[in-house]
Amino acid sequence: MAELTLTGARKSFGTINVLHGIDLAVKDGEFIVFVGPSGCGKSTLLRVIAGLENVTSGEVHIDGERVTHLPASERGLAMVFQSYALYPHMSVAKNMAFALENMGLKPAEIEARVARAAAMLRLTDYLDRKPKALSGGQRQRVAIGRAIVRDPKIFLFDEPLSNLDAELRVATRKELAALHAKLGGTMIYVTHDQVEAMTLADRIVVLNAGRIEQVGTPLELYNRPSNAFVAGFIGSPRMNFLPAVVMSDDGTLRLSVGEREVALPRAASGLVAGANVTLGIRPEHIDVAPDNGMLAATVDLVEQLGGETFIYASAPGLPQITLREDGQSQFYRGDAIAIRFAVDHLHIFDATTGAALARP
Amino acid sequence: MSDIPSATRPQRGLANGALAWLGGVAVLPVGGALRLLDPPMRGMQRVIGARRMAYVFLLPNFVFFGLFVFLPIGINVVFSLTGGTALFPSQRPYVGAEQFTYLFDCGSYLDPASCREDHFWRGVANTVKFIVFQVTAMVLFSLVTALVLNKKIRGRGFFRAVYFFPVLLSPVVVALIWKWILQRDGLLNAAITTLGGQKILFFVDPSWAMFWAVFVSVWAHMGFYTLILLAGLQAIPADLYEAAEMDATPRWRVLIRITLPLLWPNMIVVIVLALIKGAQTFDEVFVLTGGGPGTATLMVVQYIYETAFSSQVQNFGLAAAASVVLGVVLFVLTLLQFAAARRKEV
Amino acid sequence: MATTRLSSLLGQRRNGQGRPLHWTDVAAYVYLALGVVLMFGPVLWLVMSSFKTESALLEFPPSALPFAQVEVTVPGQPQKLPLFRVTLPDGTVRQLAQVRRIGLVAQMVDPANPSQQFRVAIDKREPVRHIALATENYSEPLQRFAFLRFLSNSVFVTLVATLITLLINSMAAYGLAVYQFPGKQVATIAVIGTLMIPMTIILVPVYLVVTELGLTNSLWAVILPGAATPTGVFLLRQYMLTLPKDLIEAARMDKASEWQIYWRIVMPLTLPALAVLAIFSIMWRWNEFLWPLAVLTKTEVYTLQIALNAFQGELQTQWHYLLAMTVVTLIPVALVFVFLQRFITTGIGSTGMK
Ligand SMILES: Nc1ncnc2c1ncn2[C@@H]1O[C@H](COP(=O)(O)OP(=O)(O)OP(=O)(O)O)[C@@H](O)[C@H]1O
Ligand SMILES: [Mg+2]
Q1: Which domain holds residue A319?
Q2: Phi/psi at C119 (5° precision)
Q3: Hey, which CATH number is domain B118-345, 1.10.3720.10, 1.10.3860.10, 3.30.70.2740, 3.40.50.300?
Q4: pTM of structure
Q5: Chain A contacts of B48, Cβ < 8 Å?
């Protein structure tokens, strides 16, 4: 259990800069999730924290102590690898005991700790098996067990669920949440699955191209994304982005979207007439409204999931728009529909920088 | 067709398991030493840091390399440029390229008798002759054997083993086995006389001696080259043959148009490897014929060995000069091999 | 009937589908049968010959099996006498023991009735023989020559050299496979470069180094120079490169020291490759010839191969001992082969090394 501070952490491999100055403070007992697209540097950041990579510049502190140049074996952290990295020639028990032996604990203590972790993870019956003889979910639990027995300062997870099938992934996700509630340790978790991020995190760190885009609780990121990247990344299906031009800002804000004008009830500051902006609206905030539609569109594709329906529609002069409807839908490809935005949930971003401009 | 991979897969697992077990037995005595080294190595790591431990791991091997490979390469050059009979380089007077000019002092390179160091040139001539015959025979026989073994015949594993096992025999044993058969009252002469022929003194006739030197060397090593070619044959995708069968291609055309072209990279490897090993030929021939009759089967390596170690005057300089020459030839051959291996990867 | 059954048996594909026998299949079997005779025959001949008595070895034409003449004790004769089957002038055939031979006539006696003597022309008698294994070919060299000494020298060289090779080669391979460090490129090239330098061409200077180290005429002179094999480093490195990097990092996270990662994680996982190297090292060392021949000049430190070579030079006529010792020399190899044939052949097939 510990807190972690990164200040100006940069990492480059030769001439490739992967991390461009990361500042982050993780509080004691917090569950932090790093999300971001593939190749944005999540794993690299985690490995920098672990000590498996050295920062090129910047500092790493754990519990106020500077560990920037300490090797991984002396930082007292535990990591669960995406591949699990179980030692194939050792039994489950040996896998868990290995680190404890290296710490020089007494055999009795080692056995007690392994037994406790195994009980917690329902692995007691498998202690003598080799990893090869375990299912994917069991292997995953051994990997977690190997971290738990250590009682480490911080748990690090690098996409630990990505090798599991969908059902197991949901189950294990819940177990991890329960585990965090029980152990209360500081956990840092890397994923590119935003559902995992939303459900597990106390706070989410959104990374993009080696930079932090936003740090906040899951709902903060959902409700008040600080830029178009975060807005697009959090939420599924993706937020719709529509190019718009500010018509006027005299009390009410009027935007031209495609061939229509949309009037927004409340004014937002910092918008001048004629400016190009991007309008952001999530699929769940768009409705089909036969009577008072804002926009006429044609249905391109309907995805019926039973409990909900995704409708992909196109309006002249605009990119394809995704709508989410509760329940099942009566629409078919080629139908003409009128759609309506829930104006309270509109986001406005600078068309060039992507920064959030106004939250109506 | 599809049964073959599935049949070999469990075997491979078994083989790997058994190999691991064997390795375990081999490493067991080392294991204790490794454990004992734990505390000092930990201390070392604390002092120099984890990343620099790489050097600690490389050190022993490279001390050996240094002492017995790199240093000797340097000394060899020194030897070849100095004269006298002393073994220690600093006591040897510098003579420049004299050893080489002596070695290369020939009336005609095609006639060893016209050379001052005629034994060296006889060795060269014999080795070249040996290589030409041996590599040709080797490639031919190992190709035929590999083709035969690649057929779906019963007892393939057994036959492969039969052709392979002489590879493991020591050259001395190989030579003695054949010497015993080829001697004056040996098995072969018995066979010849029962068929009504005359006994042949194989090791008194220069041509026979060379023939048997080549024969025995092919006998001993063809299993190795057969395996390389067999691996190449088995890497040819089965669907090519199936496609050819669908097209009703005659067997000889399949062989000439599909099998041999696809096997060509392996053939090159075999040829070059056989060349390199051929140039280094010593032990089998030495035990079989002693280089005789006369100098009829004296090879370059035997010349080097005898010049340095068993002649009246141990002439290290001349031996070193000859090995520098041999080394250059082998180097060129090895470059060929690397080029061939690269082509194979493409 | 029998032939059709045979041909249908031979013609069967491995997966059991019937297929007519093509003439190439027949040719293949003939070729293989010849191969068996040519490859196995000489070794078999060696083994059979090694059990023949000295006199049986001198016979021409040689018999296939190790026969020895029957000898009998005859009352009144100090020594055992050889037994012959004799055709007497009256046409009867009797078994008589030969007392002595004078020119073309042999003086013989009936073992059952020693007082009765015969004079027989030597072309009228034939030795009575039985199959007998001349085990003294094996037991006598053990006493007469320092044969056990050579054997133990060879065993010592083979085992110690193989252990050293496994240890230092695996350490170097681990260093090259797992770490990034300045000079790694150079070290790797140095290893691959030495792959192609045969002992043959640095014979003289290695001899100098060994002399300077004071090792001449010691077994260490044979063991040490070849201990760091570039082939071994290369083979093990290639294998270690296939181990997941995560495993090593996981061990680091688990507070293992680098040395522990080497011997507790990487070595156990490299066992198949180590076994291949062990087998090859054993073969190399057991069979090594040129270098020991150059560096060992005292009989006490001879290895089997050198001793064998020396014998065949010195004891040209004593083939009975030489053959027996040759058989002993090839026994370990034969054992290794019988048990490990599959691994060796697949090892060579996949690594192309020898
Ligand atoms: N050892 C290395 N040498 C050079 N470049 C590297 C190295 N490790 C990572 N990179 C580069 O750094 C970038 C970030 O890699 P990283 O593994 O951190 O991505 P990630 O966010 O974890 O992606 P993913 O979601 O696919 O796992 C990538 O462009 C990658 O190519
Ligand atoms: Mg990653």
Answers
A1: 240-358
A2: -115, 120
A3: 1.10.3720.10
A4: 0.79
A5: none
